[in-house]
């Protein structure tokens, strides 16, 4: 392939959230990297509860880290300069260049936008100066006209950086032609000039059935359909927000090369408590990649009654979600489970909940709050956030890596009353008492040897003959990224994509007035 001009860039926008922007961006990065192009992902503004820590201790959206892996480069703060982490329906933590700077609501965020646009454009220019190509991902929809005046992630970015824009629509939702045409029609003339083509995502069936609609869409808009991407069963990747396992069924083990599907009484069953503000649910992706392991979300006591392991994941609102745990009846069900010696695992915020008390004047302002009392632990929140990658050797002798993103500082104290005796070390900085374990590290279960040993212990406690397969999670993830690269290479008009990276949006694209045709 002819290498695109240095600094070539385009923006992948979508008709709605979850239309396929993150996946298409990752696929383009993988395809370009395999063609020998040094490429980087970029998302100006991300609203997500799934995040990761870069090598220099910056916090960015997990999707951008996944896209960086697809590109074969190290993730960095410049790839996601603005991150919003919702803590309630109205407030979010504002993270800029990897560091938290404020708590904002929707109206309070607007005054930050002018300053943030400058930061965003500086980061994009920096990436374009160091990489051959930059694939930018939009946020939500570019047709959110109520937000257009202060937009820094969609058409505001495209206009400021002179980017051609691909718009992807999800046909699985229905109404994809209306969504694509309507997106264009709602934009003003200057914004429309940047819309260079359409991509339809998640198509199932014979693509020839779409042909009449595709040709009509091209005729009505004057823009080409650059590809129809088929539905890929079993393909799930790091996502921007809390993963809904009910809409993402267990992957096909044969697709990952891990053997035949496992069913029957020795299948290991895992329930993940679905907190209202759960975060970093991608911690459980490695469990889902294990043949013979079923993972589901749980919001009621009945949903954890028959499982072998309950996981309390991370959360952006520890005290609030702990109160929800009690209202739902899950707190009592967890106490009964612990009394019976059945396995429970807490990660970060979920770990903090398992302790005797939480002292929080920072995140919730609630002060001292009783925990579940299942581990001899006190957590005190501090204003500065712990951010960092970690490595070490687990208590059972396995080398492990992970990362930390937290305001809470857990302290183990065996002298605390009511926790049923002393605790043993778990992982590296975690603790275990009976069947209850906890850690502050995200990503711990991605360590293959540690995960196998942990699951073997869970199976023994459950009386199952389950034995973990020899699964390398890094290889599983790499195969999925390769599948995305193949998807782009096989189903996208890559010649036009190359031209867009080389020359930008074609001149003279027609304006489509609102209400047309």
From TrEMBL:
| Every CobB/CobQ-like glutamine amidotransferase domain range | 269-450
Q: Which GO terms describe its biological process?
A: cobalamin biosynthetic process
Q: Which SUPFAM superfamilies match?
A: Class I glutamine amidotransferase-like, P-loop containing nucleoside triphosphate hydrolases
Quick check: keyword Methyltransferase in the entry?
no
Top-rank lineage group of the source organism? Bacteria
- Keywords, comma-separated and alphabetical: Cobalamin biosynthesis, Glutamine amidotransferase
Q: Where are the transmembrane segments?
A: none
Mind listing the GO molecular function terms for this protein?
ABC-type vitamin B12 transporter activity; catalytic activity
What pathway, per the record?
Answer: Cofactor biosynthesis; adenosylcobalamin biosynthesis
Query: Does this entry carry the keyword Cell cycle?
Result: no
- PROSITE patterns, per database record: GATASE_COBBQ, GATASE_TYPE_1
Q: Pfam families, alphabetically?
A: CbiA, GATase_3
Domain named CobQ/CobB/MinD/ParA nucleotide binding is located at 11-235
Catalytic machinery residues: 348 (nucleophile), 442
Against HAMAP family, the record matches this protein to: CobQ (MF_00028)
> What is the recorded function of this protein according to its Swiss-Prot or TrEMBL entry?
Catalyzes amidations at positions B, D, E, and G on adenosylcobyrinic A,C-diamide. NH(2) groups are provided by glutamine, and one molecule of ATP is hydrogenolyzed for each amidation.
- Protein family membership: Belongs to the CobB/CobQ family. CobQ subfamily.
Return the NCBIfam families for the record. Answer: cobQ (TIGR00313), PRK00784.1 (NF001989)
Q: Which PANTHER family match?
A: COBYRIC ACID SYNTHASE, DETHIOBIOTIN SYNTHETASE
Protein name stated in the entry: Cobyric acid synthase
User: Where does this protein come from, organism-wise?
Assistant: Parafrankia soli
- Gene name of the record: cobQ
């Amino acid at each position: 392939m002819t290498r695109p001009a240095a600094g070539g860039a385009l923006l992948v926008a979508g008709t709605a959230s979850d239309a396929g922007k993150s996946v298409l961006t990752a696929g383009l990065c993988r395809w370009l990297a395999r063609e020998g192009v040094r490429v980087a992902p970029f998302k100006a503004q991300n609203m997500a509860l799934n995040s990761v820590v870069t090598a220099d201790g910056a916090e960015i959206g997990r999707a951008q880290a996944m896209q960086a892996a697809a590109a074969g480069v190290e993730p960095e703060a410049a790839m996601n300069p603005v991150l919003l982490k919702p803590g309630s329906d109205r407030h979010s933590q504002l993270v800029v260049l990897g560091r938290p700077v404020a708590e904002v609501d929707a109206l309070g965020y607007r005054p930050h936008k002018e300053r943030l646009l400058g930061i965003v454009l500086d980061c994009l220019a920096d990436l374009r100066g160091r990489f051959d190509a930059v694939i930018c991902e939009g946020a939500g929809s570019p047709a959110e006209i109520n937000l257009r005046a202060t937009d820094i992630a969609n058409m505001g970015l495209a206009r400021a950086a002179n980017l051609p824009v691909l718009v992807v629509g999800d046909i699985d939702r229905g109404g994809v032609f209306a969504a694509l045409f309507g997106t264009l029609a709602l934009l003003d003339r200057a914004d429309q000039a940047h819309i260079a083509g359409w991509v339809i995502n998640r198509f199932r069936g014979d693509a020839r059935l779409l042909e009449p609609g595709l040709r009509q869409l091209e005729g009505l808009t004057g823009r080409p359909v650059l590809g129809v991407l088929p539905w890929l069963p079993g393909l799930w990747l790091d996502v921007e927000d809390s993963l809904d396992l009910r809409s993402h069924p267990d992957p096909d083990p044969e697709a990952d090369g891990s053997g035949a599907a496992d069913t029957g009484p020795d299948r290991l069953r895992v329930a993940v408590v679905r907190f209202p503000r759960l975060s970093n649910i991608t911690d459980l992706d490695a469990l889902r990649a294990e043949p013979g392991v079923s993972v589901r979300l749980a919001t009621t006591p009945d949903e954890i009654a028959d499982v072998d392991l309950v996981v309390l994941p991370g959360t952006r609102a520890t005290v609030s979600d702990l109160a929800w745990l009690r209202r739902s009846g899950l707190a009592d069900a967890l106490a009964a489970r612990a009394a019976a010696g059945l396995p429970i695992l807490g990660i970060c915020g979920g770990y903090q909940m398992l302790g005797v008390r939480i002292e929080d004047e920072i995140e919730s302002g609630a002060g001292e709050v009783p925990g579940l009392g299942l581990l001899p632990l006190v957590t005190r929140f501090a204003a500065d956030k712990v951010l960092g990658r970690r490595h070490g050797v687990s208590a059972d002798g396995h080398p492990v890596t992970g990362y930390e993103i937290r305001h809470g500082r857990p302290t183990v104290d065996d002298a605390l009353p009511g926790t049923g005796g002393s605790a043993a070390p778990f992982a590296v900085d975690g603790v275990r008492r009976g069947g209850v374990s906890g850690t502050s590290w995200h990503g711990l279960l991605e360590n293959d040897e540690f995960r196998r040993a942990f699951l073997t212990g869970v199976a023994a406690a459950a009386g199952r003959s389950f034995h973990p397969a020899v699964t390398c999670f890094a290889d599983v993830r790499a195969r999925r990224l390769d599948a995305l690269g193949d998807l782009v290479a096989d189903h996208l008009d890559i010649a036009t994509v190359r031209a867009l990276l080389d020359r930008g949006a074609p001149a003279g694209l027609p304006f489509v007035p609102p209400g047309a045709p």
